[in-house]
Amino acid sequence: MKLSIIIPAYNEASTIGRVIAQIREVDLPGVERVILVVNDGSSDRTEQVARSTGAVVINHLLNRGVGGALGTGIEAALRQGADILVTCDADGQHSSEDVRKVMEPLRSGQADVVNGSRMLAADGMPWTRRIANRVANLVTWVLFGIHMTDSQSGLRAFSRSAAMQIRIRTNTYEVNSEVCGEIRRHRLRFMEVPIRAIYTDYSMSKGQGFMMGLKTLIRLILTKLRAHS
Distance of CA 104 to CAs 12, 96, 153, 194, Å? Predict the structure, then answer.
């Protein structure tokens, strides 16, 4: 079985090497793993650090955003023959052991897509993030008709068949809700598993502030309107 772990990365030179090293340490018997880093127009040493670990690196000349990077990574993983695709953040927020947790239901045939939910194991999650996640979950449900406890999770696993059906049109943070909508549109079987998020000052500095969240909401509404035009 071939596993592709897709890591979108923008100016993550300080964390990407450690993230890749920890993923390589996860015991996955019978699985050939490929770590695929999409260097999204970084101006630091993200590319060089990722290549030094033996990861496959794809470069965007310009910063497109996490949605654009995920789209590039998924297309590349499918071309390389991946049976399972896992997406993972580059800032060190995810526990590498949870990579195995999100892929196991796919290996046993229980689901087509597995969402790693920080809200199912929210101990230690800052209250601001809990509120933001609940608002995002509500917006995702209203716009796309699908409820997830953590619609904005960066740790997800897709079967090859599911990944081939999902179409990513957006470039920035609205991609997470868009993927949820694609799961519902194609009637893919999904489940959520609890994952542990590792919050540091660095990881907290990433993600969306209030204004970025508002822009994401507007773009999501426009994405929904375009889909019905």
Answer: 28, 14, 17, 13
CA-based diameter of the chain, in Å?
47
- Cross-strand pairs, 94: 197
Least Cα distance to 71 among 221, 172, 160 occurs for: 172
CA–CA separation, 196 and 122 (whole Å): 8
pLDDT tens digit string along 165-207? Answer: 999 988 888 899 899 999 999 999 999 999 988 877 666 666 5
Indicate the number of domains in the chain: 1
Domain region containing 21: 2-227
CA gap 195, 193 in Å, rounded:
6
Strand order in the sheet with 32-40: 56-60, 32-40, 2-9, 84-87, 156-159, 113-117, 190-194
- 128: helix, coil or strand? helix
CATH number at residue 19: 3.90.550.10
- pTM to 2 decimals? 0.89
